């Protein structure tokens, strides 16, 4: 199924909900998940386009009569009763405040929380939360954590997310507060491809096909690329920016492949600046959100115009939407899930996807 994820609608003073529902229907959404902080006057099926809604109640709403009975087609989740069917044999945890635990803890502690929930409910594959009013994504081996951001008082517009549970693609979106005037373009982000060409000779053509479907013309490789893959013919119609570790030396030049200098690891595409920090992916594992933001402030002092910090080194994808910059780890290609990310500018729409793997042939 395709799910639309929203949170923290509050009073919806700017009338964003109907506009987000229009976006949901354009994107084929079949069911809405609301991660909490909804007011009683918004418990109207027509406000949400008649789509089924799973909505997390916060503690103070449990005893309020307005929240006793969900509208037709709706499901309420409550503290200590947050797990619902997601489609097929999988389950989802639909809560509200777990993002705050990440704020005070770390990425590693969040992963422990996910495993704790899964130990109690074996088929939980998605974990949804809101509350902190910014977008977060933590891909796990079996459980993925998602905060879609806030409809009201988000950092950069009226935020939401869309998930396809078949392809496991997730898109973090927003309706801008004012229409941008700059032209739209998309940047693909990959990392940690290592020896993928030896393991799957068809990987690069498949990846490029996925990127082309999303309008990508520029690709940033955050590091751990095999030297023999530099200049790969599959990317002949794209501009590729790649980062090399200090122990890697490559002297052959290709017109459309651009080495990211270690001294100033900033890629400028159409006036938007992306800072590449390969090792940061591992460093973030033990940091809380305030510590991440402090680290990014240091990078902003050095490179004031950067909007994105791109990293790698870990297998799983990660997104942290901060007040200064967005941190994106596309996740690994070889040891991860053949991950990639796409950033669509100027609306800052971020897609996390996977290059599909063909099933094993039947045994005759």
Unreliable parts: none
Give the CATH level 1 class of the largest domain. Alpha Beta
Q: Specify the overall morphology.
A: globular
How would you state the average pLDDT, rounded? 93
N-to-C order of helices and strands = EHEEEEEHHEEEEEEHHEEEEEHHEEEEE
Query: What structural category arises from helix and sheet content?
Result: alpha/beta
Q: How would a crystallographer describe the biggest sheet?
A: 12 strands, mixed
What's the total helix number?
7
Distance N to C terminus: 33 Å
Q: If you compute it from the alpha carbons, what radius of gyration comes out, rounded to the nearest whole angstrom? A: 21 Å
What strand line-up does the widest sheet have? 4-3-2-1-10-11-22-21-12-13-14-15
E-strand count: 22
The CATH homologous superfamily of the largest domain corresponds to Metallo-dependent phosphatases
CATH fold group of the largest domain: Purple Acid Phosphatase, chain A, domain 2
Measured by DSSP, the beta-strand proportion falls in: 25-35%
Helix content: 10-25%
Q: Write down the domain tally.
A: 2
Instruction: Provide the CATH architecture of the largest domain.
Output: 4-Layer Sandwich
**Oligomeric description of these chains:** single chain
């Amino acid at each position: 199924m395709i799910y639309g994820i929203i949170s923290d609608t509050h009073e919806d003073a700017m009338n964003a909900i109907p506009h987000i529902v229009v976006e949901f229907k354009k994107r084929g959404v079949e069911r809405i998940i609301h991660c909490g902080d909804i007011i009683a006057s918004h418990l109207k099926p027509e406000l949400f386009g008649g789509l089924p809604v799973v909505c997390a109640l916060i503690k103070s709403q449990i005893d309020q009569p307005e929240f006793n009975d969900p509208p037709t087609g709706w499901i309420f989740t409550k503290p200590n009763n947050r797990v619902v069917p997601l489609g097929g044999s999988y389950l989802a945890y639909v809560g509200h405040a777990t993002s705050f635990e990440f704020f005070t803890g770390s990425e590693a502690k969040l992963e422990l929380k996910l495993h704790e929930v899964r130990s109690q409910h074996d088929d939980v594959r998605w974990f949804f939360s809101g509350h902190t009013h910014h977008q977060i994504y933590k891909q796990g081996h079996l459980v993925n954590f998602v905060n879609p951001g806030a409809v009201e008082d988000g950092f950069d517009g009226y935020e939401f997310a869309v998930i396809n549970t078949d392809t496991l693609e997730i898109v973090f979106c927003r309706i801008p507060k004012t229409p941008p005037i700059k032209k739209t373009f998309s940047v693909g982000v990959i990392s940690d491809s290592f020896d993928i060409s030896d393991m799957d000779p068809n990987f690069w053509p498949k990846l490029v096909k996925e990127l082309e479907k999303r309008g990508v013309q520029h690709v940033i490789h955050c590091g751990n690329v095999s030297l023999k893959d530099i200049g790969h013919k599959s990317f002949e119609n794209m501009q590729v920016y790649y980062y090399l570790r200090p122990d890697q030396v490559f002297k052959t030049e290709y017109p459309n492949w651009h080495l990211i200098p270690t001294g100033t690891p900033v890629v400028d595409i159409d006036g938007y600046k992306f800072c590449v920090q390969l090792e940061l992916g591992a460093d973030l594992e033990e940091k809380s959100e305030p510590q991440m933001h402090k680290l990014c402030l240091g990078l902003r002092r050095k490179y004031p115009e950067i909007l994105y910090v791109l990293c790698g080194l870990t297998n799983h994808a990660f997104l942290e939407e901060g007040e200064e910059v967005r941190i994106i780890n596309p996740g690994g290609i070889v040891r991860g899930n053949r991950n990639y990310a796409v950033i669509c500018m100027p609306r800052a729409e971020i897609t996390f996807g996977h290059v599909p793997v063909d099933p094993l042939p039947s045994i005759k």
